[in-house]
Amino acid sequence: MIYFDNSATTPVYPQVLEVYQKVTQDYWGNPSSLHDLGVQANRVLDRSRQNVAGLLGVLPTEVIFTSSGTEGNNWVIKGTALEKRVYGNHLITSKIEHPSVLRTMKQLEEQGFEVTYLDVDDKGEVMLDQLVQALRKDTILVSIMAVNNEIGSVQPIREIGRILEDYPWIHFHVDGVQAVGLNQALVTSERIDFLTLSAHKFHGPRGIGIVYKKKNKKIQALLSGGGQEFGYRSSTENVAGIVATTKALRMSLEEDKHTETLRKELWDFLAQQEAVRIFSPKNGAPHIICFALKGVKGEVLVHALEEKDIYLSTTSACSSKKNDHSSTLGAMNIDDAWASGAVRLSLSNQNTLAEVAEFKRVFSDLIKKFNLFRYK
């Protein structure tokens, strides 16, 4: 099997599974309990929080564990809106965000908030001049993803941070779910107030997310109850999942240019095919290529490759089963004939050059096959 759908989810590292199993067996007490079993579990939880903070270059009190990137995005956006509504009701995002951001913004619009959706250029990058023009005295949040999940365009987060230095009252949220493994710091600007991550995107377990919340930034709590996670997300912590996530994050942040090599091999091959159009920018994230084969629907190509035991997806995994059109390609003004054929190939450091070579062989055969069917 060749698995090229790592932007949808990643296989868990074996070492991470070992950690998860050990913590599940040895530290199963409730970390809020006063007895020794609870104290031991709480120590393990605290150590993981400190380790994650060290990896991100932030304070332990700025690390909050959630259940997913979607939960984190919902919390930061809605929590900011509720907390800062007395100061303003205007939010800014882009047209190419993940559904957990775009649909949350639409929900807030129904509640009376105003949202500006920034355009992107032909490389899928946010237009900074539009951001400057959109900023207002009543703007309370700017939410921009670090890496687009469909085409892999890397957004100008540092530049946005510089612009927002003149607007200290505005919360700056970065969806960093696709950014782990870029060989750079995740908190790329001191101006970032919130960063969301999801463990299953970097070889960790499902059901664990991370939110970086800058100290002194006020936001409404996500869940009310027993006061866990500094009172922001009340719920008994998944200690084993959190420790395993910490291990996965450490492993994934180790410098590794392997995916860049694989992507270049695939990029050069696809660029040579006359019937292929690549939508991802050449200098995009080192693990994503979005492309289409002329005249072939994306789902048809996905299943044709699946028959050869090669797995990739149509654009976003969150939208593929619903047959939703790509919001990113739409924002880039890609015509429907091409956009309907878009597929996303996404890599991890577990993929190999041998797998790339096999993909090239199979894809070359498929091009010939589809051309034969088309011209019969």
Automatic annotation (TrEMBL):
Pfam family, one: Aminotran_5
Keyword Metal-binding included in the entry's annotation: yes
Classification via PROSITE patterns: AA_TRANSFER_CLASS_5 (PS00595)
Domain Aminotransferase class V: start-end pairs: 2-358
Family stated for the protein in its record: Belongs to the class-V pyridoxal-phosphate-dependent aminotransferase family. NifS/IscS subfamily.
Keyword terms: Iron, Iron-sulfur, Metal-binding, Pyridoxal phosphate
InterPro entries the record matches: Aminotrans_V_dom, Aminotrans_V_PyrdxlP_BS, Cysteine_dSase, PyrdxlP-dep_Trfase, PyrdxlP-dep_Trfase_major, PyrdxlP-dep_Trfase_small
Name this protein carries in UniProt: Cysteine desulfurase
Gene3D superfamilies, alphabetized: 1.10.260.50, Aspartate Aminotransferase, domain 1, Type I PLP-dependent aspartate aminotransferase-like (Major domain)
